[in-house]
Sequence to fold (103 residues):
Amino acid sequence: MTHDAEAVLEAALEPHEPAEAEIEARRRVRERATGLTHHEAQAALEAVLADAGDLESADASVRAEAAEWQRISDLLFDHGGPYAPETDAYVQGQLTAREHHRD
Fold:
């Protein structure tokens, strides 16, 4: 992965009010990632990056998808087990924040 791609992924993970397309892209990634190991998540990230081409010019939902695969791959790096959104503290924090934001 290039330094530019890393910078784009880091920016996509920065706290911000995500667009609906970004939220949906992350939800789809989490659904697909459920049960995957680190190597499988890393392969999915590499496929998204290859399909995206220039990540800087990709739309926000593609950047969100790549960033979520990167985050999950990083999470699983030393986890040793399959991915599960219900045990992902980041996901649970987001869901709680959105619920409180709606109230």
Notes: Helices lie at 3-13, 20-33, 38-52, 60-77, 89-102.
